Amino acid sequence: MLYAITDSQLLPDDRLAEAVAAALRGGCRRIQYRDKSLSADVRLQQAQTLLALCLEHDAELIINDDPQLAARLGAHGVHLGQGDMPPGQARRLLGPKAIIGITCHDSLDLAHAAAEDGASYIAFGRFFPSSTKPEAPAAPLELLATARQALSLPIVAIGGITLDNAQTVIANGADWLAVSHSLFSAPDIEARARAFNAKLSDFQPHKD
């Protein structure tokens, strides 16, 4: 499944809503709103717009690194890094139905800890060179297969994923492909989302 992550460098305020709408029209069913540079009021306004779009397309909106914003907005969930609020605390804030994702980089130990603390999904990566997070530690594709055997949670792969390597990542064990630059830098975002989904349609061996 395709999981789109917004990027304020690629999508300034005047492009954000239309770009996300295009991804949704192309079949993306999970959007992560990620922006750490704008004021709280502007972020709330942007997130409200994206939530309305997601609801219109039967999709989920995940807020990056800000459980309080997710709670205030009534978003579907939050994505947390290792230095953010622990998943158990986020669960108590957002409720039992919230989607809580945790970045675990290249560590199965971190993934086990997140699962035990109430995470809904685990994110590993980067798997390929990434223009969004070039400094992120590299993770081997073999980690996905190992995690598939060790974890019962859905697995998200992130980092440098493109049309050329998408099928390989899914075949190695990922449930969701998190993409940012390779989707939102496309001249036709809707067509790029459709192309990703077409690539993935033959690889659905894992349950969400």
Would you write up a description of this structure?
- It is a single chain.
- With 208 residues, this protein is an alpha/beta fold.
- It has one domain: Aldolase class I (TIM Barrel).
- The chain is 41% helix and 16% strand.
- The chain is built from nine helices and eight strands.
- An eight-stranded parallel barrel has the order 1-2-3-4-5-6-7-8, surrounded by seven helices.
- The longest helix is centred in the first third of the chain and has 17 residues.
Element layout with pairings:
Blueprint: E1 2-5, H1 13-25, E2 30-33, H2 40-56, E3 60-64, H3 67-73, E4 77-80, H4 87-94, E5 99-103, H5 108-116, E6 121-124, H6 142-150, E7 155-158, H7 166-171, E8 176-179, H8 181-184, H9 189-200
Parallel strand pairs: 1-2, 1-8, 2-3, 3-4, 4-5, 5-6, 6-7, 7-8
What's the helix-strand series? EHEHEHEHEHEHEHEHH
Order of the strands making up the biggest sheet: 1-2-3-4-5-6-7-8
- How many DSSP helices? 9
The overall pLDDT, averaged over residues, is 93
Beta strands, count: 8
Instruction: Find the structural class using helix and strand composition.
Output: alpha/beta
Global geometry: globular
